Amino acid sequence: MGSAKSLLCIVRQSRSLVSRLKARKIFFPKPKTAEIVKYDISDTPGEYELLVQTLYSIVSSGTEGANFARPDLETIETGSWMKNPGYGNVGKVLAVGKKVKDYKAGDLVFSTQRHCSPFVINTRYDPTNYALFLTKAPEGLDPKNAVFARIADVSMSSIRQADLGLGDPVLVIGLGMVGNFAAQLFQLAGADVLAVDLVDFRLERAKQCGIKKVMNSRDWDKLRDAVMKWTDGKGAQIVVEAIGFSPVIAKAVGLARTHGEVILLGSPRGETMMDITPMLSDVHLRDVTIKGGLEWMWSVPESPLYHPSRFSKMSNLRTIFSYLKSGALVTEPLLTHLVPPERCQEVYDGLAGGIKGTLKTTYLGVVYDWTKM
Fold first, then answer.
1. Where are the beta strands (DSSP E) in the chain?
2. Residue 152 carries which DSSP code?
3. Who is most buried in 18, 49, 314, 349, counting CB within 10 A?
4. What predicted TM-score, i.e. pTM, was given to this entire model?
5. 41 vs 22: CA distance, rounded Å
């Protein structure tokens, strides 16, 4: 918090002398390389803008890990989101533009800004830059806790897509943060959840988060037997694949019951060569529905100007914030690494071990601490 106060002092007391502020961000210059880059930003927010000092930003291991390892990274434009990671940020407002009405200096704000600090952000949502938005974080919610709302919001799309009934058996495959939050949310919604993963460490953390049924899925035959025993031979009503691995998706269909659903919460990546006819035949013969679970299917504003939907990103976040504040949604066991941004190379190297299938990984939830920069 000391650096935030120092920056605020600069903005308030030295405006006539200082027109630019030094900012820092995490950047991927080439494959498997992460570094801190310094650059200048204006110390004077525009009419509808905020100047924000980041407190904490959270790592999305799937998206950021995939971009970190992209072999073509050097050919991608410098300003691309693929080279400038991060999309979950909680910070303190340092200064506000002349026409800003709903925010003031000192407010705690949640945004989808990158791993950077300080930064300027517009308070007016721009649909042409749909993935960037902000809102106030609730008073009394620890900012280290609030930043996890970004990942839980990704998980929320599986709930919104599901044709869920009270007590339905739901199988969640993959217990990274996205799968863990999906399992927690389905439990809160009244489902009977079984959550599985290859990594015992993640299974233990899932239990600490209150997920009641967990199982190691290393042996798929044993998993199938367990699912059929759990569901009296019918299969799960809903299967959530939270990894994005095509061979697992293909096999997941066989764990859903007739007229059941498979929700693709993880983004499929990488080329896979396999015979998909058995999966397609299963879908055809048993009427299994495969649904996409991309979070951006929901509008950001609660009252969009066109094509209004029942749910929105803002309404989802309001629900998530209430669960975080009440303790219904558990985050403490997920925070495995709270590190300064300068250790970004170590972070992405560590996450890559888990992404590659290292079963001894201790990386799960990584949050960058910007308060001491």
1. 20-27, 35-42, 49-58, 89-96, 108-111, 116-117, 119-122, 134-136, 169-173, 192-197, 213-216, 236-241, 256-264, 289-292, 335-339, 365-369
2. H
3. 49
4. 0.90
5. 6
Model confidence over 17-45: pLDDT tens digits?
447 899 999 999 999 999 999 999 999 99
Q: Residue 285: CB partners within 8 Å, gap ≥ 6?
A: none
Structure tokens at 319: 């629900």
Contact by Cβ (8 Å): 243, 173: yes
Task: Find how far residue 72's CA is from the centre of its chain.
Answer: 24
Q: What number of residues does the chain have?
A: 373
**Sequence-ordered alpha helix ranges (H) in 114-191:** 143-146, 149-161, 177-188
Check if the beta carbon of residue 108 is closer than 8 Å to that of residue 66: no
The per-residue pLDDT for 15 is 45
Domains along the sequence of the chain with CATH: 2-148+332-369 (3.90.180.10), 150-296 (3.40.50.720)
CB atoms closer than 10 angstroms to residue 246: 19
For the purposes of burial, counting CB atoms within 10 Å of the CB of 167, is it exposed (0-12), middle (13-18) or buried (19 or more)?
exposed
Per-residue confidence (pLDDT) for residue 174, from 0 to 100: 97
Q: At what angle do helices 313-326 and 149-161 cross, to 10 degrees?
A: 120
Residue appearing with tokens 């996205």: 178
